[in-house]
Amino acid sequence: MYFPTGWPKVIRIPKLGQTCIKQISCNRDRILFAVLTDDALTIWFCKPCVPIVFYRRPPQSLEKFGTNILAEWKPDSSMIVVATSEGHLLLFKLGVITDSKGLYLQTDSPYANLRRDSAELFIKEIIPPLHLTMIEEIMVWDGKITGIACITMSEFMISTNQGHVLRYRWDGTQHRDYNLDLRRIPFCINQQVSKAIPIVEENTYIINIEYSPLVGGFSIVLNDGRAAFLTASSLKFDPNQVQGIWAQGIEDATCTVMNHKYRLITFGRANSECVVYYVDESTGGLEVSHNCILSSKDYPGDPGAIRQVLWTPDGCALVAAWEKGGIAMWSTFGSLLMCSLGWDYGLNIDLQKKNPLQIKSMQFATEGYQLWMVNEESSPENDEPSNNNVSTTSLLQLDFMKSALTINPCMSHQNHLYLQGEDKLYVNSADTLIKIFSERSTKEEGVFGESVSMTSTLAEGRQWLVIPVPSTYSATNWPIRYSAIDAEGQNMAVAGRTGLAHYSMHTRRWKLFGNETQEKDFIVLGGLLWWRDFIVMGCYSILENADEVRFYPRDSKLDNKFAKIVPVSSPVLLMNILQDQLIIFGSDGHVSIWVLKYSSTVGIMEVFKVQTIDISALAVHPACIVSITLTSLRTETGRGQHHNSESIVLNVSGRLLMVQREVRNGERYTCSMPTVLASCVENVWVPSRRRVEKAHLTEALWLFCGAHGMRVWLPLYPKDGDKTHTFMSKRIMLPFHLKIYPLAILFEDAIILGAENDTILYTSDTNSPFSLPFSVLQRTSQVYLHQILRQLIRRNLGYHAWEIARSCMSLPYFPHSLELLLHEVLEEEATSKEPIPDAQLPSVIEFIMEFPVYLQTVVQCARKTEIALWPYLFSAAGKPKDLFQECMAKRQLDTAASYLIILQNLETSSVSRQYATLLLNTALDQSKWELAKDLVRFLRAIDPNDVESPRTSFILPPKLGLSQQTPPVSPNADDLSLILGNVQGPRVRSYSTTISPKLVENRTSNTTSSNNNNFVESPHSGRKKSVPSTVGLSKNETRGSSGNTAEEFFIDVILQKHARRLLSTRRLTDLGYFAAHLDFHLVTWLGKERDRAARIDDFVQALKHLHEEFLWPYPTSATFVAQNMALDSSHPNVEDRLKLLKIDVNYQTTSSRVGDSGYMSFQGLPCTGLVTPINTLDSSSQMAETELGELSQSDVESRTNKIDDKCDFARNSSFYDKRIDLYGDCKNEVCDKILEAQSRGRVDDTGMSAVSSVWDDDRDVMGNASTENWEVPSSQILEQLNNSDNKGSHRSEVQLRYLLQLFMEASCLEWSLIISVLLRDAMAVLRTVNAAKSPDQSIEAVSRLRQGLLLMQYWTNTECLGYRAFMLAIQNQISVLSKILETKVQHQKIIEYQQAVSASLNKISSPIPTRSRRISSNHDSSSQCGSLKDKKPSNLDASDKLNEVNTSSSGVKENTNESRDNTVIQETTGCVIT
Q1: How far is CA 1017 from the centre of its chain?
Q2: Is the pTM here over 0.70, yes or no?
Q3: What is the separation of C-alpha 107 from the centre of its chain, rounded to a whole number of angstroms?
Q4: Per-residue pLDDT tens over the stretch 51-76
Q5: Are 1454 and 1409 in contact (CB under 8 A)?
Q6: Can you tell me the distance from the alpha carbon of 696 to that of 1432, in angstroms, rounded to the nearest whole number?
């Protein structure tokens, strides 16, 4: 309810000399404060905090009467009585100086530069000029005075150390007939006991006395530690009628205070606790309501005895101060709100030895916004102060914010959380929280297409919106008394001492009364609320001297002429609203119900009184009615039933009563007997509307009972079709505990909102006024759904729990609620020392199984619980193996990954590795790259020493990547063979692209040395290694160095297998993501798979598949023609830009990599990437992580131009004819230029440089080939082909360019050619053909590359005419490939001849000819040749077709070369290659 804010202010007071402050006391209005010192009395004004009058007693008076010890105000603030240490009473009269206008008047300077520019700089509060005079001194001939209590306007009572309670009049005379003597007052435990015994012990007297007319007596504390309550049959307190009621169980009471509204009696004890009693109405005895204690969590030490206790003015909070220092605040019924012992005082402060807050007296200012405290500071010079060294005192002021529910309980209808201060509002709107969450939940922010794990409303919107009240209003109407917020949370209204103002969140502006006189003419009383667009308030009209209810429209000016004013019979104490019905409770004890109607067309508001009910018999005084609520809830309500009559819910001093209204005899309302629903109730929340979807939650009554926890009064609807029995309960009261103090309830969202206090230390300098902590406010929240479900399941009401849970399944934190439900039951039962005959865990497990998040809930609960509790959990939930397999069956891979942690701790490592391998394969198949990455780390972290040993019980980190505590293990070959069985040979793991592996290949010495110059071993040897239990490996798998473990090889086999599957199925996008996430080194692997998985059997189908996968549009002939026409009229400078281009086709034997990757060729100038080659493995690794890692499949936007026919124009004859016509135009204008450029014998400077040699060692043999020039299309054609507008997205282009670079570096020329054609990048095609000269490329690979180019040319001529122009531009590369093929065949014949000669000279048998290409260990040469022979007939048929097509474009030269190549290959290798 109350929360401190800011720094405690240190008030500067006059120098006290050798004296100290004894007490601080406020008048009834809490505007004036009396500060009592040993020899003086000072009157202070509250706001602004300034002293008004000062009276110091002369030394003669001090010597005669003693020093001041106590002070008490007369209720009308006209007199103050001061008790002295020698048993005297000093009466002071306080009056107003009539001839003075006021104190602290501010006059502006005559100088312009010193004048105040703003009205806010003037104090508008009139500070009354007071005079203080001592009018009488009274000698109390009865010992020393121990306490003073004012009982009426004319009398006060004092207690003495002689065991007497004396009654004095304010004129100084003693009312002797009504004096009390403790030795004559009978004491008993309650008023029903006939035997009552007076106090007979000697030297027993009262040390503290408090009076409350609403409780009906005095609370007293005796010097021996006992506490009692003095009461009588009437408030006259006739000594013959007074009876004492002992407070049982207290022997160490130190102080007392009384709560008027809730009728509570509080005693402070020496054991640092406060115990709160209430008077039992049936017996009249004192019964314990609750205890205000500090738990060990709040403060583990002993703060000492209670020095003083104090209630807030509204009775909603209790403050206690301890002897050893520190203060704490509890709510009415014992919920801890604040404790200064938990504040941050810095490292230099020891609270046990010296607490900065040594409070000896305290008082609340008006409305409870400020707490005035007298702080006692021990002298720093000596730890044990002597008589000459007295402790010093200071005056502190601590500001508070409070909930509007303390004074305006009708705000419990709203879902909005806000607090009010003396001149500002702190708003935290619930709608803002829900909107933030709903907007986030609709977005997919995952980079890889996965849903982001979203934080719930619990973590949103912790900031407060601070709305200061304008000084124009607060300067004269301080402080804020009432505040209200509307249902939408968009409008606020505040009311101070007079008038009101309202604020709009939308416009961020306040609206005040234009006529200040009208603002000063009424005082808001009883409540303030919003109804539609009207502000409703109870008020007292000073002008009319009458009580009214007023309605001010929001959109009109604040003026009485726009207001609807309804007079009422008595002052309004409370008011509330339900839809269009207003309920008002007056000081006469009557409740009136009004119906509100507003006609928007006419603009007239009508108010009708419906019923008046006298409830004065339900409370001893109208002030004891804490809240009144009109609700549609009833004790007996069936599902879907609606009643025209609403019930009244009353909070009478903490007891909650329901009065049901019924319609009888037509329109006449009658009321049934009140029903007591609960006791110790602080706040009540009733939903303002009912929703059928969540009927249980929106037709429930919510109560907060302080230390007794939260309670909810739930409806129990019968099952549909069931017979309703009259003996079955229709509602049930469920209790549960909260960790926060509730201020607002989101009924439909199952969230409770609250606030808590926290502190910040700015300086540790004890001399600074800022050395005390700075208090801040934080919003807190708690989900309560699991509490309700647990209580219902415990009471065998599982069906109702299921209905409530089903209605809340759409909440984003519903799985979290189920997890909390399971966790709390598990912790309670598994750690219980007593046997549990009716365990709740099996029922909770069965309940959670009804929802699809069951598997997720169990594993999340297990991972947040100690391992020692897992057997008990899984004995009810099922075996982890079964749950894991169920997750796999339901494709809940993330949940299954969480179960791996469970399996790793409950099963052997071999079992966890087996399931991890299964999950890894599934994750790879479903493209869950992040999960697969974590699983690979998990597998590599398994220790091979733990393969068969059970896991020890220790708590694992929540991540899959585990930090290992054991030293790295490097098993030898014997260990591996022992574990793995007969698996021979060392294993190879994948390598980073930044560090290339040593490749052990069967090549010639030159090739081997050249390929291995730049390769070094991987340095990753310190990683913990593990060994698989069963791995089926073929004998022909790639072997590596002996330093790599079998476990790494086992993982690499899985990854390579999946990569091979992706590449074989042409899923290049997934292959890129796979390599980027799993650190799979694609270039190295592609080099090995060049003639296996990377081999393309159908070039045309591969090209079509890339179009679909990357959403890449097909080129159209019309686009090409239009661009060509624009090109003819363009500036010829494009050709000059290409003259700077020069391509070097010299190849060295030391590298098989392509000099330029072509990655940059998509930029503005064509082929500019040639001068900045990107061929290092370092760059490829970085780009793989930065670019492909950022691209997700879900991020590729859908396009409207779906490819339906895939350029199959031949199926539609009419469309095909049109395309032929377009192509005819293209051929006449553009294609002729291409053919003309290719018919030249030489190429100018824009073409290629001469080829020097293919291999340096055979320059004389290859001389003819080196003199050939490779043609390049003209600059205009390249410019047009590169800058085509008919392209896919930029993201797709970046992906394709990067894949092109990877394939080029790996010498996978077939895929490079396909991607180059897709991108229509002629220079990339040239580089691909250029790379075919590498000795790494076999005769078969070059032949297949040439054949694929021919097939694509045939396809473009017959089906997809959009590619025709591009294919014409690159068709001369077919002849270049033919020349390369012829050169490679001749070179191979030379090698075979040299081998034959060397063999004959050495007289040994002929060796096996060296293979012309890299042969995989899985395939031998015979199988390859056999496959080629099988394919010979089809290839020849395709060749015939290709020859027919190419006759017109390429001539007969290619066919001649092709037949010659085939002939040569048949003679040398025995393989037929077409």
Answers
A1: 46
A2: yes
A3: 54
A4: 999 999 999 999 999 999 999 999 99
A5: no
A6: 78
